[in-house]
């Protein structure tokens, strides 16, 4: 008899697990309460990158003069941008749904919870408001319910002037000034996005460096770019209240107060201070599934919870909150459920996940970071090449940034790297492949790459 596999959540983790498990012969039901494709994926990742692409096009146009063209100042058409975001979302949603259906996955619209270790209860509300409940028995269950933006107790977002990240795609009006609270990946992407659209931006940075977990050299390039664009950085400050207040002329503004007494006034504020897992009200306690103090399901290397046939994957598993990682976890779960790990399974190594920050310049990294190697006294070889010596960067009229490769001095094996500059998110794939496949720097040097291309900086850094 086929394995009965029930998946809760249709984001990258859930829908990838469903596709692979169905291909491997499981009888799969995928329950999604909202949109197939995933909340974070379709509400955060895709719209934010779509807006950043439009903002990037605007800042590119501002540099046209340097390319022998007359400068033109484009204006944003909020309606057209909103339509563009919607059409991309619909296309992606449709292609994911078609793929799942073509593999024979049963798609159920509804909200699911565990009512026993093997039973999933699904509540569906029809268009006329009537609800129906059905319970599915499962041999294996995957919880892939994602996360939602974290709202602190000192602030009440209103979706109008005090915004969470999900209120920004696009905002009803483009803010004339924005205070972004939180200087992690999401925060800096929002700074980049709003400043590309011409807003006056202030970033509240709780530490002394934006992107506190990143290589200081990488963060420095981004900070320089922000300062050059007129972004105000409030370093060493923690926001402790955000309020809407009336100005004398009857209009309104947002006041952000920080713990060191500094106060910022702007037309809008955006909270980018992380997320919380969607694990409440899932019946995890009924099924005996353990969560950590933050509410994330604790998993082993196969993504199994403490209840072996109940798996967790994606953002709510508390690993790397990346769409790519969620998908790969989903694939590994499918393999494990179907017993494939015994023959052809490679464990997911979170330390080798490539990630990117879609700012300008773009930032991408993978594998071992220089600071982490120093922290544990590991000997490494670090080679760095600025794009200013790369012909294609000069042709592009954009030579900001560098390529840095970290390798083992004894063997030449590539351990990690970072890239700051145009197309960094694409270029990092070469280093990511080298890190995953244990390739040596000579493998990169001896590849016959294209000329002129930004990838030449990679070969030079690998020398
Ligand atoms: C602003 C922002 C930008 C981002 N940009 C990137 C990026 O550029 N690149 C990248 O790799 N990652 C990015 N991410 C992260 C990425 O979006 C997530 O890592 C990814 O979506 C996680 O996938 P998931 O499957 O775990 O969850 P989700 O995509 O959140 O999907 C979970 C699904 O579960 C459903 N669900 C929840 N509870 C229930 C229930 N009880 N019953 C039924 N269904 C339920 C939800 O409706 C949702 O559809 C970004 C995140 C943010 C916040």
Outline the fold blueprint.
Blueprint: E1 4-8, H1 12-23, E2 27-32, H2 39-62, H3 78-102, E3 106-109, E4 111-116, E5 119-125, E6 131-137, E7 140-143, E8 147-149, E9 162-164, E10 177-181, H4 185-196, E11 200-205, H5 216-228, E12 232-235, E13 239-246, E14 252-258, E15 263-266, E16 268-271, E17 275-277, H6 284-287, E18 310-312, H7 323-337, H8 341-344, E19 355-357, E20 363-367, H9 370-375, E21 381-386, H10 391-395, E22 402-407, E23 414-420, H11 424-436, H12 441-445, H13 456-462
Parallel strand pairs: 1-2, 1-7, 2-3, 7-18, 9-16, 10-11, 10-16, 11-12
Antiparallel strand pairs: 4-5, 5-6, 8-17, 13-14, 14-15, 19-20, 20-23, 21-22, 22-23
Helix pairs in contact: 1-7, 2-3, 2-4
The chain binds flavin-adenine dinucleotide (FAD).
The site of flavin-adenine dinucleotide has 36 residues, from α1, β2, α2, β4 and α7.
Bound molecule kinds, no repeats = flavin-adenine dinucleotide
Rg, nearest Å: 24 Å
Helix fraction bin: 25-40%
- Count up the domains: 3
Q: What is the second-level CATH architecture of the largest domain?
A: 3-Layer(bba) Sandwich
Q: Please count the helical segments.
A: 13
Category from helices, strands and their pairing: alpha/beta
CATH class of the largest domain: Alpha Beta
Coarse shape: globular
The count of β-strands is: 23
Low-confidence stretches: none
- Summarize the main sheet: 5 strands, parallel
Average residue pLDDT:
94
CATH fold topology of the largest domain: FAD/NAD(P)-binding domain
Strand order of the largest sheet: 3-2-1-7-18
| Annotated CATH homologous superfamily of the largest domain | FAD/NAD(P)-binding domain
Relative strand content? 25-35%
Our measurement of the CA-to-CA distance between the termini, rounded to an integer number of angstroms, reads: 56 Å
């Amino acid at each position: 008899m086929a394995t009965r596999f029930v998946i809760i959540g249709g984001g990258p983790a859930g829908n990838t697990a469903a596709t692979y498990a169905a291909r491997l012969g499981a009888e799969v039901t995928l329950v999604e309460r909202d949109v197939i494709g995933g909340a974070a994926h379709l509400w955060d990742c895709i719209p934010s990158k779509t807006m950043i692409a439009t903002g990037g096009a605007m800042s590119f146009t501002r540099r046209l003069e340097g390319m022998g063209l007359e400068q033109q100042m484009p204006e944003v058409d909020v309606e057209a941008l909103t339509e563009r975001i919607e059409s991309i979302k619909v296309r992606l949603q449709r292609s994911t749904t078609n793929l799942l259906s073509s593999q024979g996955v049963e798609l159920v619209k509804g909200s699911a919870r565990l009512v026993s270790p093997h039973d999933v209860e699904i509540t569906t509300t029809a268009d006329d408001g009537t609800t129906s409940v059905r319970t599915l028995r499962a041999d294996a269950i995957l919880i892939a319910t994602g996360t939602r933006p974290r709202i602190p107790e000192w602030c009440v977002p209103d979706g109008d002037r005090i915004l969470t990240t999900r209120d920004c795609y696009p905002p009803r009006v483009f803010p004339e000034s924005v205070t972004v609270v939180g200087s992690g990946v999401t925060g800096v992407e929002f700074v980049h996005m709003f400043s590309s659209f011409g807003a006056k931006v202030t970033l509240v940075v709780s530490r002394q460096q934006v992107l506190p977990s990143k290589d200081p050299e990488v963060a420095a390039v981004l900070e320089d770019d922000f300062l050059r664009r007129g972004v105000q950085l409030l370093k060493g400050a923690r926001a402790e209240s955000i309020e809407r207040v009336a100005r004398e002329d009857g209009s309104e503004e947002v006041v952000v107060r920080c713990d060191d007494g500094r106060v910022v006034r702007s037309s809008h504020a955006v909270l980018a201070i992380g997320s919380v897992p969607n694990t409440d009200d899932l019946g995890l306690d009924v099924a005996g599934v353990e969560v950590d103090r933050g509410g994330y399901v604790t998993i082993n290397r196969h993504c199994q919870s403490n209840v072996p046939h109940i798996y967790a994957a994606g953002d709510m598993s508390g690993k790397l909150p990346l769409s790519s990682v969620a998908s790969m976890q989903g694939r590994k779960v499918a393999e494990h459920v179907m017993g494939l790990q015994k023959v052809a399974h490679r464990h997911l190594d979170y330390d080798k996940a490539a990630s990117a920050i879609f700012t300008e310049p773009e930032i991408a990294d993978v594998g071992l970071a220089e600071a982490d190697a120093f922290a544990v006294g590991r000997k490494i070889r670090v080679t760095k090449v600025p794009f200013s010596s790369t012909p294609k960067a000069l042709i592009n009229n954009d030579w900001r940034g560098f390529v840095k490769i970290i390798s083992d001095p004894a063997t030449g094996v590539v351990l990690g790297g970072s890239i700051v500059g145009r197309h960094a998110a694409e270029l990092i794939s070469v280093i990511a492949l080298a890190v995953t496949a244990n390739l040596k720097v000579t493998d990169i040097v001896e590849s016959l790459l294209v000329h002129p291309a930004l990838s030449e900086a990679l070969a030079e850094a690998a020398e």
